Amino acid sequence: MLYIGNQRECFFDDHFLDESKTGAEYRLHNPVPREVVLTLDELWEGDGCDYYNFFYDEERKILRLYYLAFKMLGAYEGIRVCYAESRDGLKWEKPELGLFDYKGTKHNNIILDPTVHKNIDNFMVFCDSNPVCPPDKRYKAIASYNDNGRAALWCFWSEDGIRFSLENTCEITDKGAFDSLNVAFWDENASKYRCYFRSFHTPEMDETPFVNESIRDIRYIESTDFVNWSEPFLLDFRGAEDIPLYTNNVMPYYRAPHIYIGLPSRYVERKSWTPTFERLCGAERRKERMNHHPRYGLTLTDCVFMCSRDGKSFKRYDEAFIRPGPERPLNWVYGDCYPARGLVETPSPLLGADPEISIYNYENHWSGKPAALRRYTLRRDGFVSLHSGAKETISTSKRFVFEGAELEANLSTSARGYIRFVLRNDDGEKLESYEIFGDSTSRIIDFGGDISRFSGKPVYMDIIMSDADLYSFKFY
Question: What is the pLDDT of residues 388-426, one digit of tens each?
Fold first, then answer.
């Protein structure tokens, strides 16, 4: 039996419904590309700016963004870590921090420079909400750091989120590859730190149109003190196909933090050049990259969606969450669809409509042009819905217990479509909602009676739908 209390339940997976009694389908939804919010056109930036990650700083009431800055084409000057911030997720600024000199000036947003740290390959920052965290270590970062040819995952500390120092005693693990955006955070629900990082494993070989000699994978470790960590192990994808995943972007979903979501980039390396590559946008640039290594021209990347209830076993949707998109001169490259780690609510462009989720994805990778960070939008809880076509479906929950006297739902129907909810207990008592139609992320559901009499007791829920999507619900 499930206890859901008054937490929000999303239909990202089959946790709530009885699989044998589910008539509707789970439908993945794709974010919509919007405007470019940040152009990386400073002299110290370039087409290699990547591995963006951000969070909302509750104390400072600001979004704080971190990214690598370097050039893929042109004179390589090493990798810098840079910083930007925003009040609303729509307008981003690069503050002049005055920390490092770049060609005679400190008027820049650089927070780590290769003259000090020469071998950083990625840099992910979080604000540590662990109650026992010392104030001078409130901001933590993890990064791949190559020390005398030995790659490992290291921790950096900061009191203000700008000035970071590396402690030689804080190596997290050396059992991985790490050349990705590795992720760590304090999990308030579980009272421990979680860390996800990249490694490799050898797959069982099969006949596919893709190179499959070594699989880029995601490993997991955990800690209670951020010093002593468990042994790494592979994420469990519940028997799904073994495919290369370059990043992970795992985070607790902010509207339902007991659910973990990830937006990993998928690595697809085809075996040979074909006529399709010849006709695909950017063919000449792709051929130039192949002069350095064939995979630089034969590899493409996109992004998928995955979710978990325990942070270790994940349901992964293998149709793309973000595709490279309509062919343009600078896309369909190895480096597309690496979304920033982080989500933020932003106003809808439709006056009076509910807020949306903004996701940020960078463009112009490996092009010789300044990288750009583009905003994408998605409905709140809109990664996956329980979907019914025109034919009515009935889906039944597992036995569960809720707490509350109201039901709120995130739903969308056509003018002709509808959703009805039926609550029933083991004694055969039931209570049915009125027929609901509309499109709202927070619709109060009206029943023909008081649902509080079912509160705290085992019940079932029947969800009757036609031409509709149900994204989430919450008792309160």
Answer: 999 999 999 999 999 999 999 999 999 999 999 999 999
Q: For tokens 């995601």, what's the residue?
A: 218
Q: Where residue 168 falls among pLDDT bands split at 50, 70, 90?
A: low
> Which tens digit of pLDDT belongs to each residue from 378-397?
999 999 999 999 999 999 99
Domains observed in the chain: 2-27+385-475 (2.60.120), 32-381 (2.115.10.20)
The CA distances from residue 127 to 1, 112, 130, 158, 244, in Å, are: 35, 18, 9, 10, 30
Place of tokens 């001169």: 329
Q: What confidence tens digit (pLDDT) does each residue in 429-467 have?
A: 999 999 999 999 999 999 999 999 999 999 999 999 999
Query: How do residues 197-214 score in pLDDT, each as one tens digit?
Result: 999 998 876 667 777 678
Q: Does residue 89 come out as left (phi exceeding 0), alpha (psi in the -120 to 50 range) or beta?
A: left
Angle at CA of residue 257, ends 175 and 136, nearest 5°: 60
